[in-house]
Amino acid sequence: DSGVTQTPKHLITxxxxxxxxxxxxRSGDLSVYWYQQxxxxxxxxxxxxxxxxxxxxxxxLERFSAQQFPDLHSELNLSSLELGDSAxxxxxxxxxxxxxxxxxxxxxxxxxx
Amino acid sequence: xxxxxxxxxxxxxxxxxxxxxxxxxxxxxxTWLWYKQDPGEGPVLLIALYKAGELTSNGRLTAQxxxxxxxxxxxxxxxxxxxxxxxxxxxxxxxxxxxKLTFGTGTRLTIIP
Lengths: 113, 113
Prior knowledge:
Structural class of chain B: mainly beta
Structural class of chain A: mainly beta
Oligomer: heterodimer
Order of helices and strands of chain B: EEEEEEEEEEE
């Protein structure tokens, strides 16, 4: 158990809908990273938040957005969902800027029908 | 998005055999991490490497940070059934504002009875 929690574990929805994925980092960790894992693209970095502020963006679609709240939990919002958005979404956390090791949560499996 | 080249893509071995896999990149990294992922779970950190040429062990696992900073290697000695899973390398530049992990394509390890 990494100490990172994610909810829900599974999510099934229809095209065009909007969903919110939630992540709680390990106790004391200030950084949250979001990754998407799909069969064709593998594990891809989406976005990084540190202590409530966005630090870096990766291959994140404009239909996707995220935020980190004062209690340090983070939410990833996916809107206008398409079939190709079906994937595993992971968050990871670590303690500080420049911290190397990232600890991953169990993931949310999103299925868009 | 970018993925690092990992080889082999899959391995079928017998219990007790040693395993070697590697990861190569076209660009340099300051940190190399190795993760293991079981089906339906998040990646679990196995070993972290911080310096070119570094050799680090974690039980039966040994990893090396390539001298060119563009590759890394993972060895597993005397494999056991719980070693089954997918192994991912991940490279990181770890500069402020650029802490994302770039993952390899994965090596799937199967133990033949």
